[in-house]
Amino acid sequence: MREAPVGLVGAFVAERPYLSIGVLAPGLAALAIVGARQAGGGAGETIAVLALTAAALLIAPMAIAAAAPRGGLALGGFAALVFAIAIGLTALDAGMIRAPFDAPSPPRALVMAACAYFAFLIALAPLARNVTRLGVLASFGAVLGVAGAAGYLALEGVLGGATGAVAVALALTIGIGTGVNVAADFSNFFAEGQNRRRAAAAAGHSAVASSAFALMALVVFFAVHSFTINAGSVDWRIVWAGFTASAAAVGTGLVAVVGGLVLSDINERAALDENRRRQWFTARWRPLRLALPATTALAAIAIAGIFVVIAAFEVGVAAPIRFAVFILLLCVAASLAFVSARTSTLIATVLTASAILADYVLALVGVAGPATEDRFAALTLGAVALGALTVSWRDAGETWRNARDIVENALSDGLRRYLFIVGAGAASLFAAMYALQWPGALSTIIYFLTVALIGLILAPPAMTAMSARLRV
């Protein structure tokens, strides 16, 4: 059995989980308190509302989904109970029923959003149940990291308003995505026979590339964003504030999941779950595999290209020069993070096509798109999700030679990461909207989900076509 590679970050956290968690958690809590006191003007209340909102929308649904039974009638009964409680809380907030004791009721908007995220996680269970269970601490880490970094955002004067809300939403998504990547890699290594500590350390190491790309994508976004709002010059104060928030969420998400995996009593059931998940995906993917040979994939990509050209002429491209620079910088970031020109090309191609087609689809159904800067924020989240998907494609190409084998194994591993990040991204955008009064968030969520759906449709044929043409 080949030993999984263990890097400095993964090894340090796996060998010293208590130290890693014990240093980060108090430090971030202190940063939040100091930032709230120094900034004043209600910053402390804003940070508290943000932390509670993120906990309700991100931590609670993931923790409840992780505790759900594995399937069958038990899972159905569990989900029905959760939804019944949610309906009761919604009715309580609406004044339709009265509580037997005097206590504040949670806002119905938060309850409904949390239920939607929980339902998404339950629907995703056959593909990602083990990731939810193994990576549940990712949401705790991301919320802790963002709550701490919110103190720094308050000090820099960017916590309130759209810029702070975007920074928070991106940081929450990237932090949870990092933890999910760690959990997915751990399940792979553990199923291959690695012991728990080494599998956790190797998973922490494997997640570094995706985390680095996510952080670089965020820097690209804030550089382009500040260049626009600052009359043609980059405001490095905004860039650094956004990077700090995401770096805190990424660090705590990684440390929380790696440390939690090392300290948890994980047995061979985790390996069995992973093997069954792969079998489940292989059986469901087989019809699409048979329908998507390399020639069909090339034809599908050509047809998609025609639609992209039509869409570009029909609805145009918002801020075309900034969009081109944004995609180019993302491509450079992906090349540096993944050390793969194929991966960066795939991300840039799929994201560009998805963005243009999303504008066209929304125009057809009569839905107004988000503001330009909110649009770029949604595309940043889309790039992060695609990064998690395409790195699995890169790794599968090193093992498998047939194009359809490469795509099947890439999607078996990467699809759960992609969908998890999409769900967490939508929930994070809603949390930022509710806690920080971001008026453009709803249209951004719709646009982001549209881009993600189109990207999910385009990615498999693009992967198949590039795998066949490049003979990876």
Number of extended strands: 0
Helix content: over 70%
Number of helices: 17
Q: Give me the Rg, rounded.
A: 22 Å
Percent of residues in beta strands: under 5%
* Mean pLDDT metric: 85
Which structural class do you get from the secondary structure elements? mainly alpha
Please, could you describe this protein's structure?
The chain is mainly α. The protein has helices spanning 8-15, 17-39, 43-66, 72-93, 108-123, 125-134, 137-156, 161-191, 196-229, 236-263, 268-291, 294-315, 320-338, 341-365, 372-397, 403-436, 441-470.
Task: Spell out the key features of this protein.
472 residues; mainly alpha; globular
Note the topology.
Blueprint: H1 8-15, H2 17-39, H3 43-66, H4 72-93, H5 108-123, H6 125-134, H7 137-156, H8 161-191, H9 196-229, H10 236-263, H11 268-291, H12 294-315, H13 320-338, H14 341-365, H15 372-397, H16 403-436, H17 441-470
Offer a quick outline of the entry:
The protein is an all-alpha fold.
